[in-house]
Amino acid sequence: MNELNGRLTEYAEEFNEILRNFSSRLDCEPKILADSLKYSLEAGGKRIRPSMMFAAGDLLKIKRENLAQFALALELIHTYSLIHDDLPEMDNDDFRRGKPSNHKVFGAGNAVLAGDGLLNTAYSILIGECRKGDNYITAAQFICDSAGVYGMIAGQSADLLHETDGEINEEILGFIYKNKTAKMLTAPLVVPAILADGKYYSQLKLFGTNFGCLFQLTDDILDVEGNFSTLGKTVGKDKQEGKCTAVKLFGLEGAKLRADILADKCLKILNGIDEDTTFFEQLVLYTLSRKN
User: Fold this and answer.
1) Domain 2-288 belongs in CATH node 1.10.600.10
2) How far, in whole angstroms, is CA 63 from its chain's centroid?
3) Residues 6+ apart with CB under 8 A from 101
4) pTM of the predicted model, to two decimals?
5) What is the pLDDT of residues 166-191, one digit of tens each?
């Protein structure tokens, strides 16, 4: 996994430079708004989504300059979703990435506005990219749809709904996984495919869906087996909040079995791509055994 770690570090450093340039120009008023935006954006994280986009871009030979703003918009949307997820009305978590959640530092009202600000800024960035041509319009719309009421928002809504009504089955779990998590892990793969005139679009989209479900499934497992020092967030929250998870539905060992099956599906999909997919193969195996 040393090769994977090296590439993840390289991609993350490359993206963090893009993010630093963005943050340095973020001078909105009042100051508490800019501070709350920067607090969550600069809190660290693995930068998985930008890294996946850059890796897919390398695979498809898309210039980094054509992906940079899409990656930035995607990370802004992801960060907004984390801020809102942590709110008492949502997942109710006091910590994120080992630091107090945004609402614990700036208050719930300012955290809502910080999330709203990141989302609106992301859409402004995407609109700017649309000036570059039809493929850029299609790519921007794909990200918007992935984040919206037919994607992440729908998954989050279902997550909250079935937390309160207690209903759980494989169909409900699949809907939550595919929308709440997988859509936003599919977008960084599909955007480069769109810019490459659709090359490997179907394979990358299918891979993203299965990988996203694997990522969420392992997240469910880590909520049981993980610890705060490595996760940087509270563990045991899923059971406490009555979340609809694979562990709740299938048991811990059943969830691990399904993770193995999903990982195998991901690897088989990658076999259908006639390019060097080593990065994504290693990412699948890393996710299967990840500790954070």
Assistant:
1) yes
2) 22
3) 83, 86, 93, 94, 95, 111
4) 0.94
5) 788 999 999 999 999 999 999 999 99
